[in-house]
């Protein structure tokens, strides 16, 4: 793999890299996104992503040869230290940045089994929340994630960072809530929602028999009424009187781990 040295801030490749870091519109237009860090790049390789290029701090030019061995046919650039520091959002803790191609996240391509348990996130807005949810979904051995009515770019660098790269490991589909509900009903997947309701059941009393979807809404507004109308069971998590809500990723984590515990997956 030949290496090209980049020493000018006006270099077209660096301008393109900055745009991919900063602009969701550019990521969508070019069908590309940015991955910063060894751990995240390694997981993207494991997840079968295709890479276009890598940018390495000049002081670490040969440090990543083992990491990059599976993706030899990519453009490789060595960047002067001052330029790299201006590009990085990791405060100097990482010395490598990669550009990879988006995957398709079409709902029709999502492959599920009769015993699948999936997480559905409706209208997520905060990249950090998305990353945290993927991290927990991966840790708790969920089979897939569906994002309904997304409010932010799936490949936002902060989502990738907060997920520690686990965002690349789970089968993921993105669609509207109506499309997702139709998909679930067609496949006879049980819909459970985390929502306060007169007929809600305490989360640990539910059996979690698959195929099952655990649906979570936003912290600020909760779930769209469409989900409440279509749910098979509302679930609640008991809390002290002094607290009226839990962090989204904490609530989702409780339900995901309980679903896996009830199905003896650990």
Explain how this protein is built.
The structure is a single chain. The chain has helices at residues 12-22, 24-30, 38-46, 65-68, 81-87, 127-139, 157-163, 177-186, 225-230, 248-262; strands at residues 3-6, 32-36, 51-57, 75-79, 96-101, 117-122, 144-148, 172-175, 190-194, 201-202, 212-216, 233-236. α6 (127-139) runs parallel beside α7 and α6 (127-139) packs parallel to α10. The chain has 266 residues and is of the alpha/beta class. The mean pLDDT is 93. It contains 10 helices and 12 strands. The protein folds into 2 domains: 3-101, 60s Ribosomal Protein L30, Chain: A; 107-262, Alpha/beta knot (3-Layer(aba) Sandwich). The longest helix has 15 residues, at 248-262. The strands form 2 sheets. Strands 8-7-6-11-9-12-10 form a 7-stranded parallel beta sheet, sandwiched between helices. It starts with a strand and ends with a helix.
Protein topology:
Layout: E1 3-6, H1 12-22, H2 24-30, E2 32-36, H3 38-46, E3 51-57, H4 65-68, E4 75-79, H5 81-87, E5 96-101, E6 117-122, H6 127-139, E7 144-148, H7 157-163, E8 172-175, H8 177-186, E9 190-194, E10 201-202, E11 212-216, H9 225-230, E12 233-236, H10 248-262
Q: Structural class per helix/strand content? A: alpha/beta
Radius of gyration, Cα only, in angstroms?
20 Å
The name of the CATH topology of the largest domain is Alpha/beta knot
Fraction in beta strands: 15-25%
Under the CATH scheme, which architecture of the largest domain would be assigned? 3-Layer(aba) Sandwich
The share of residues in helices is 25-40%
**DSSP summary, beta strand count:** 12
End-to-end separation in angstroms reads 42 Å
Mind summarizing the main beta sheet?
7 strands, parallel
Strand order in space, largest sheet: 8-7-6-11-9-12-10
Low-confidence stretches: none
CATH homologous superfamily (4th level) name of the largest domain: SPOUT methyltransferase, trefoil knot domain
Order of SSEs: EHHEHEHEHEEHEHEHEEEHEH
Shape: elongated
- Secondary structure tally, helices: 10
> What is the CATH class designation of the largest domain?
Alpha Beta
Our count of domains comes out at 2
């Amino acid at each position: 793999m030949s290496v090209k040295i980049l020493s000018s801030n006006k270099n077209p490749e660096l301008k393109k890299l900055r745009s991919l870091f900063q602009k969701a519109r550019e990521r969508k237009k070019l069908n590309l996104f940015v991955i910063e860090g060894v751990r995240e790049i390694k997981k993207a390789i494991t997840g079968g992503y295709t890479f276009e290029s890598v940018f390495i701090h000049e002081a670490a030019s040969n440090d990543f040869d083992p990491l990059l061995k599976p993706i030899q046919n990519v453009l490789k650039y060595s960047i002067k230290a001052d330029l790299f520091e201006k590009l990085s959002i990791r405060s100097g803790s990482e010395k490598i940045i990669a550009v990879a191609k988006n995957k398709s996240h079409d709902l029709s391509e999502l492959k599920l089994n009769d015993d699948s348990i999936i997480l559905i996130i409706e209208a997520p807005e905060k990249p950090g929340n998305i990353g945290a949810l993927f991290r927990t979904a991966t840790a708790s051995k969920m089979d897939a994630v569906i994002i309904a009515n997304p409010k932010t770019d799936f490949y936002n660098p902060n989502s990738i960072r907060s997920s520690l790269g686990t965002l690349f490991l789970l089968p993921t589909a993105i669609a509207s809530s109506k499309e997702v509900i139709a998909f679930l009903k067609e496949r006879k997947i049980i819909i459970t929602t985390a929502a306060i309701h007169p007929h809600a059941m305490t989360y640990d009393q539910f059996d979690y028999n698959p195929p099952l979807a655990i649906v979570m809404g936003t912290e600020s507004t909760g779930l769209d009424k469409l989900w409440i109308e279509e749910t098979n069971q509302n679930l609640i998590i008991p809390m002290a009187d002094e607290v009226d809500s839990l962090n989204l990723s904490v609530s989702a984590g409780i339900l995901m781990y309980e679903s896996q515990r009830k199905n003896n997956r650990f």
